[in-house]
Specification:
Four copies of one chain form a homotetramer. Chain A has helices at 14-28, 40-47, 51-63, 86-106, 111-120, and strands spanning 67-70, 74-77. Chain A is mainly α. Chain B binds a DNA duplex through α3.
DNA sequence: GTGGTCTAGACCACT
DNA sequence: GTGGTCTAGACCACA
C-alpha cells in the first residue's frame, strides 16, 4: 500500500513525482512484488490530475520493468529487475554521485548539509 | 576564468548548464567579484550555440543578482552575490536530494552505500 | 482579470510593459493570488506580438516569484508575491523619481507644481 | 560649476546620467547661462569613460537647445529654451505624472512614499 | 491544449 | 565593439 501526494510547487513534473513514489515504495518494501497498484483512473481522481499523467508514470515504470500491466486486470509490482554487476554498479554509483555533488556545490551546499539531508531520508530507500 | 562545457545528452537545457557552471564558478571562487565573463557572442561561438541561448543564461543570473551587465561594456560577476533565503535553500536541497535518491534507489543502491560514497568525496566540495 | 495594452512609442520594451502591468495588477489587487493569466499564445495573439515576447515577460516574473508556472497547465499569480528588500525598494524609488524629475525639470516644471499634481491623484494609487 | 558622478549600477546609461546632471544644474541655477562645460575629452578622463559617451550626452542636450557648441572653443549653457504654452504645459504635466505614478504603483510604492521622496529632492529642480 | 527551449537573423542602444 | 529586443518558426515536454 502507498499513499500518494503531489507538490505542485516542487518543479518536478507530476508524472515523475508519482513514478518516484512508486520506486521508493518498492525499494523500501512498502510495495511488495505482485501487489496491485490503484487503477490509472482511480489514482487520477484521487490526486485530482489528468488521467494521462498517471498513465505516463505507470508507462515509464513498465518500460523500466518495475511494473507489469495485465490488460483488463490492472497494474502490478513486478519481480525486481536484475541488478547490475558489481563493477558496473560501482561505476554507476561514482557517476551519479559526481553529477549530484557538482550540482549541489553550485548552489553552495556543503557536503555536511548534503549528508545530513540524505541521512534524514534513510528510511526512504 | 572558467571553461564552459555543454552536455547535449544530459537533458538539462543549455542555458541552465551555463548558468549552473557560472554559479559553481562563483561558489567555488573560480570567478572573482568584478571579473568579466566572456561576451555573449564569444561564448556562443565557443560553445557552438546560438547567441540568444547564452544571453538567456546571463539574463537569468542578472535577475538573480549573480551578475551585473553594462550595456555596451560587458557582463561582470556581481559585487554581492545573493544568499539564497533559508527556506528557498532548504527547498532546493530537498528537491535535488529527492531527485538524486530516486535515481540511486532505482539502481538498487542503499542509503549506506550512498552516504559512504559521498563521504569519500568530502574534499571536493 | 486584466486588460493589457502596449505602447510601441514609449521606448519601454514590450516584455517589460507586460511585466509592469502584471506587477501593477498584483499590487492593486486586480490580480488575485492563484488566478490564471492568459496563456502565452492567447496574449501574444491579443497583443499581436510574438509568443516569445510574452514568454519572456512571464519568465522574468516567475524568476522574481511573482508568478508560478506549471508546464502543461498554465501560469498563475504566485501564492506569496515577494516583498522587495528595503534597500532594493529605496534604490528603485530613487531611480524612478530621478528619472521622473529629470523629465519634469526639462519641461520647466517646479517641484511645487509636481507635488501638487501628484497630491491631486492620491486616490489613484 | 558642477561635479559629475556616475552610478554604474543604477541601470541608467552613462550618457543619460551626464545629461540629467547638466539639466539639473541648469534648472537649479548651478549652471549659469553662458557658462562653459568641461571639454568632452576632459570629462571623459575625469569620469574614466569613453569619449563618445560624453559626446553623446552633450549632443543630446544640444539638440534640446540646452547647450551650444562653438567649434574649436567649447560647449556652453545656452539661453533657456522657450517654454511650452500654458495649456500644453498642463497637459504634459498630467501625462508624465500619470505615467510615473503607474510605474511607481506597480512597484508597490504608496503616494505618500513618492511625495516624500520628491519633497526631499526639492532642491534639485 | 499548456509552457519550454533553441535557432537564425534582424535591428537597436550603449560605450 | 558590447548587450538588448523582437520575430518567425521549429520541436520538445507535460497535463
Amino acid at each position: 500500500m502507498i499513499v500518494f501526494s503531489l507538490d505542485p510547487r516542487s518543479g518536478i513534473p507530476y508524472y515523475k513525482q508519482i513514478a518516484d513514489q512508486i520506486r521508493f515504495g518498492i525499494a523500501s518494501g512498502n510495495l511488495k512484488v505482485g501487489e496491485q497498484l490503484p487503477t490509472v483512473r482511480a489514482l487520477a481522481v484521487e490526486l485530482k490530475i489528468n488521467l494521462n499523467t498517471v498513465a505516463k508514470a505507470y508507462k515509464e515504470l513498465e518500460l523500466l520493468k518495475f511494473l507489469e500491466t495485465q490488460q483488463g486486470t490492472g497494474t502490478f509490482i513486478s519481480a525486481r529487475p536484475p541488478e547490475l554487476q558489481e563493477d558496473e554498479k560501482q561505476k554507476k554509483l561514482t557517476a551519479i554521485c559526481s553529477e549530484f555533488l557538482s550540482i549541489a556545490a553550485s548552489y553552495g551546499f556543503t557536503s555536511h548539509e548534503i549528508i545530513n539531508e540524505i541521512s534524514k531520508r534513510k528510511g526512504n530507500i
